[in-house]
Amino acid sequence: MTKILIPFDFSEQANYALDFSVAIAKKFNNVHLEVVHVMEIPTSTTVGTMGGGEMLPDMENQIFFIELMNKRKSQIDELKEKHLSESYTFSAKIKLGNAFKNISESINEENPDLVVMGSKGTSGMEEVLVGSNTEKIVRTASCPVVTIKSAQDPDNINKIVFASDFREDNDEVAARMKRLQDLLDAQLYFVIVNTPGNFETSRDSIKRIRSFAHKYGFNDVTAEIYNSDSEESGIIEFAEDVNADLIAMATHGRTGFLHLITGSIAEDVVNHSQRPVWTFKTK
Fold first, then answer.
1. What is the value of pTM for the model shown?
2. Could you say which of 124, 145, 166 is where a domain stops?
3. pLDDT score at 122
4. What is the predicted pLDDT for the residue at 58?
C-alpha cells in the first residue's frame, strides 16, 4: 500500500494539496490517504485565583474553541463521507496542540510514503525568525514532501527539474527520484546552478551530472548548467525558463543553531517558488 499524509487546515492551499493527493490516488491501486487536522489550543489569558497563580483560558476563548471543535468534527465527518466509496481508502483525524509537533508525530506514527502540504510561503520578519510549518516539515520529515501553492494536476506534470551539485552519491535520493519520474512519467532536467562565489567550468559540471545519471540508470534526462546570483534564484529561474511543472531537491535537514547559520536552499525554494516542490531529507 502507498500511503499519503495530508496536513489539512481547511485553507485554499490545503484543499489544493488534498485534490492533488486524490488525483494521485485515483491513478494507482492500493493507495491510502491520511488527513490530519491540528487545532491549536487557545492561549491562556486570565490569571487563576485559586492560589496557584496558574494561567487559565478565559471563558470567551473556551466557548469559541468548543464551537470551532464541533465545526471541525462535522467538517472531518463530511470529508470522510465524501471519500467513502472511492477506489482508494481514506481516513481523517483531529489532533490538539502545536501544528508542527503534531504533524511530525503523525509522520513518525503513520510512516507515509509521501507528505503533500499546501503552503502560502512566508516573507519578511516571519521568514527570518521562524519560517513556516511547511518549511519545518520539509527540514525534518523522514519521507519526501510535496509542497503546493495552487491547483495542480499530477497528469500535467511532464517536466521535473532536479537541482543538485551532484557531488555526493546518494542511493536513496536517486531511488526516490527514479520512483518520482516513473510515478509521473515525466522528463527530468538535472541542473547545477553556477554562482559567482561557487563557480566551476561547464565541462566539470556536465561530467558530474552525466556520471550521476549513468551510475543510477536514469533515462530521458537533460543535463544543464545555469548561471545566477544565488542557488535559490537560479533554481527558480531555470524552472521558469524551461517551463517546468515541478522542482525536486534534496535537503540536509539541519536544525537548531547550525540551520540558523547555514540555512537551506531547499527550504528557500519551497518558500518562494510558485511551482510545486518535491523535497527529500538526506541522512
1. 0.86
2. 145
3. 55
4. 67
**Residue range 189-215: mean pLDDT, rounded:** 92
Q: Would you state the pLDDT for residue 21?
A: 97
Residue 253: which of 217, 280, 229, 226 has the closest Cα? 280
Instruction: Report angle CA 183, 188, 189 to the nearest 5 degrees.
Output: 155
* pLDDT band for position 254 (cuts 50, 70, 90): low
Residue 69 sits in the same domain as residue 170: no
pLDDT, position 253 = 56
Which residue range is the domain that position 70 belongs to? 2-145
| 164 and 277 belong to one structural domain | yes
Least confident of 38-52, 139-153, 202-216: 38-52
- Inter-residue contact 91 to 5 (CB < 8 Å): no
Residues 129 and 13 placed together within one structural domain of the fold: yes
CATH assignment of the domain containing 208? 3.40.50.620
Other residues' Cβ atoms within 10 Å of the Cβ of residue 268: 19
